[in-house]
Amino acid sequence: MDMLEDLETLWFKCGIQEEDHSWLYLLGRSRGLMIKACAHATFFCKLLRNLRESLQEQQTSRCSMPGMLEDTPDDEELKVGIVGGGHLGKQLAHTLLRLVPIPPECLRISTRRPEALDEFKKLGIQCFYCNSSLVQWAHVVFLCCLPSQLPNICSEIQASLGKACIVYSFVAAIPIPRLKLLLNHTSILRPQYQCVEDLDRIWGANKEITAALQDPVILQATCPYSPAGGVILNLKWLEGVFYAAINTCTAKDMPHSQVLQLLNELFLSVHFKAYGKDGASCQKFQAQDFVSKAYIKNLFQKRPFPWFDLTAVQLKETPFSKYLSNSTTFQDHLTHLYCDSFGISLTREEQSEVSTGSPSQ
Asked: What region holds the Pyrroline-5-carboxylate reductase catalytic N-terminal domain (predicted)?
């Protein structure tokens, strides 16, 4: 695209009839959706990878204590699979490789045309056509296929999905209840985006997505609480991210008190350090932020959290819904963590600007 920068007669819009120019804004909207989708998937994978590393460190520490039986720690890195090798699948793969970063040996792509993915094969990424094999191997599976292809894909992978495998769907035309039925699976994440009429021209049409996400203006527009850019994220996705993190800990049979401590370290510690705050004096996550008060009465200290249905989390109100919506302090924490995970630090003024607005609930 950069090769055409000074050749206006070859630009895409020059081939459009003047009466159709009013539809060109859809190009910006499509690019904004693509950038946000890749950014949020990257953020999720970063969090999940960091969580798994923390769990492994704790497991290794317990095994090294005197008197403890030696156990085999789970030293596997986060494994990510992508179903679909089209435009979205390729862009997502590039972004995860460079910005998480996911090692090539921990990323696999299943597509009907693996021969068209030579650029990824040269990087050491396995590209093949066997969806069931992919989901058996992966911890997270991204669905980047067409809506018409999804029923067949779901029937192929349904029996191979493990309980803890997270299916992350980009197929906007298929709602969560239908996807749950097709997969017979509850560990599903599906971000939902709302486009507004006033579309800001900030998405960097001539930049690769990985480069665009290093631009502070573009990155801030992708923040979960930001309404900038004309594309708004439904915060139910963010609830799903937190409950997915809790499920990851529950799969390791971790007591809920330790889970809360781990979540506080992962989500809040970066912000405390950046602003010189005393973490002990700041509000932290409590059990009642995630489960009902009635359930807490029977939740003893060493007992794990229950296994959460991520589809229900994204469709219904949860104890965490109110926390996400009303805690401006947490919104600041999350905004700082989000930008920091991409290597960009915000000033207090910038952070305030990012959180301005009313994102979709």
From this structure: 79-163
Phi, psi of 61 (to 5 degrees): -65, -40
Question: What does the alpha-carbon distance between residue 24 and residue 36 come to, in Å, rounded to a whole number?
Answer: 19
- Stretch 323-346: mean pLDDT, rounded? 87
* Statement to judge: residues 120 and 260 lie in one domain: no
- Determine phi and psi for 85, rounding to 5 degrees: -115, 30
**Neighbouring residues of 323: CB distance < 8 A, sequence distance ≥ 6:** 289, 330
Tokens of 191: 């971000």
In this structure, are residues 339 and 345 in contact, taking their beta carbons and an 8 Å threshold? yes
Q: What is the C-alpha to C-alpha distance for residues 244 and 233, in angstroms, rounded to an integer?
A: 18
Residue 217 lies in a domain: no
Alpha-carbon span 261 to 212, nearest angstrom: 34
- Residues 247, 202 share a domain: no
Domain of residue 89, residue span: 24-62+75-212
Phi, psi dihedral angles at 161 (to 5 degrees): -75, 125
Record the pTM. Answer: 0.87
Give Cα 333 to chain centroid, integer Å: 17
Encoded tokens for 112: 């009907």
Query: Distance between CA atoms of 251 and 259, rounded to whole angstroms?
Result: 11
Pairing type for strands 231-233 and 193-195 reads antiparallel
What does the pLDDT average to over 23-27?
52
Across the range 79-93, mean pLDDT stands at 96
The answer to whether position 186 is within a domain reads yes
pLDDT tens for residues 253-281? 999 999 999 999 888 776 555 555 555 55
DSSP string for residues in 91-113 = HHHHHHHHHSPPPGGGEEEE-S-
Q: What is the DSSP letter of 191?
A: -
